[in-house]
Amino acid sequence: MSGKLPIPKRREAALNASSSSNSSLSSADGMSADLASLFECPVCFDYVLPPILQCQSGHLVCSNCRSKLTCCPTCRGSLGNIRNLAMEKVASNVKFPCKHSSYGCNASLIYTDKTEHEDACEFRPYLCPCPGASCKWQGALELVMPHLMMSHKSITTLQGEDIVFLATDINLPGAVDWVMMQSCFNQHFMLVLEKQEKFDGHQQFFAIVQLIGSRKEAENYAYRLELNGHRRRLTWEAMPRSIHEGVASAILNSDCLVFDTSIAQLFADNGNLGINVTISCV
Ligand SMILES: [Zn+2]
Ligand SMILES: [Zn+2]
Ligand SMILES: [Zn+2]
Ligand SMILES: [Zn+2]
């Protein structure tokens, strides 16, 4: 993993390419890049993608900016509701650069594939892995651990591949998160237990492990979560998630250890729940 921070911006890169005497761009690529620039929103410089609406004089603005504007940013005229079908047709035949191109992604995509690629793009910055949407931090992978140590000091870290994640006061009402870090195999894993109400009045617990690392690195590990009670055992084994994907979608799809409050009571001791966590290399 390189410690380098991405520097060049898309617009500067485009300038360099056109001013260099031996441009390696094929004419078709150059054409597509020129066409893509016609779709730049004058406000945010993101692309204006279908459905494309124009002002009365024909100026374009992206749908995101449009929703915040009362008049055309170019001519101050009325925004109206005029669809530009010709530009929409052109848009279907243009390849747009990935929005993470300034972080090193070279992919160009037709607009219908753009969002899906960008969500999964390996150059997308990492978001803070703490559950809940309260922290807005994002940055490079190598900056995630320093961020956690600086801004989330209260998170406990345990060393070793086999530990007990103790969640206290599991009977607290409402949505609650418990978070802990586990360090082993020279990696850091984040253990998350969430109590949520997916259906009315039906509280469930979701437990999952994510690696502070890329998706590729996560493939090298497996984790096991185990609740142990009086002659009872509940086990879940899976590959850890990468923090690049995050755990929200896994929790939404119940792709984790899921149990309800009555099961939690079977294994809890005085309102505290111990979850055995074992990480292994595969
Ligand atoms: Zn815009
Ligand atoms: Zn206008
Ligand atoms: Zn990309
Ligand atoms: Zn954070």
Automatic annotation (TrEMBL):
EC supergroup of this enzyme: transferase
Pfam families for this protein: Sina_RING, Sina_TRAF, Sina_ZnF
Catalytic activity: S-ubiquitinyl-[E2 ubiquitin-conjugating enzyme]-L-cysteine + [acceptor protein]-L-lysine = [E2 ubiquitin-conjugating enzyme]-L-cysteine + N(6)-ubiquitinyl-[acceptor protein]-L-lysine
Pathway: Protein modification; protein ubiquitination
Gene Ontology terms describing biological process: cell differentiation; proteasome-mediated ubiquitin-dependent protein catabolic process; protein ubiquitination; visual perception
GO CC term (a single one): cytoplasm
Keywords of the record: Cytoplasm, Developmental protein, Metal-binding, Nucleus, Sensory transduction, Transferase, Ubl conjugation pathway, Vision, Zinc, Zinc-finger
Subcellular location(s) of the protein: Cytoplasm; Nucleus
E.C. code: 2.3.2.27
Gene Ontology MF terms: ubiquitin conjugating enzyme binding; ubiquitin protein ligase activity; zinc ion binding
Signal peptide residues on this chain, from the entry's feature table: none
PROSITE patterns: ZF_RING_2, ZF_SIAH
RING-type domain location: 41-76
Domain of life: Eukaryota
Residues annotated as domain SIAH-type: 93-153
Role description: E3 ubiquitin-protein ligase that is required for specification of R7 photoreceptor cell fate in the eye by mediating the ubiquitination and subsequent proteasomal degradation of Tramtrack (ttk). E3 Ubiquitin ligases accept ubiquitin from an E2 ubiquitin-conjugating enzyme in the form of a thioester and then directly transfers the ubiquitin to targeted substrates. E3 ubiquitin-protein ligase that mediates ubiquitination and subsequent proteasomal degradation of target proteins. E3 ubiquitin ligases accept ubiquitin from an E2 ubiquitin-conjugating enzyme in the form of a thioester and then directly transfers the ubiquitin to targeted substrates.
PANTHER family hit by this protein: E3 UBIQUITIN-PROTEIN LIGASE SIAH2 (PTHR45877), E3 UBIQUITIN-PROTEIN LIGASE SINA-RELATED (PTHR45877:SF2)
Domain observations: The RING-type zinc finger domain is essential for ubiquitin ligase activity. The SBD domain (substrate-binding domain) mediates the interaction with substrate proteins. It is related to the TRAF family.
Subunit description: Component of some E3 complex at least composed of sina, ebi and phyl. Interacts with eff.
Assigned protein family: Belongs to the SINA (Seven in absentia) family.
Entry protein name: E3 ubiquitin-protein ligase
Species in which this protein is naturally found: Lutzomyia longipalpis (Sand fly)
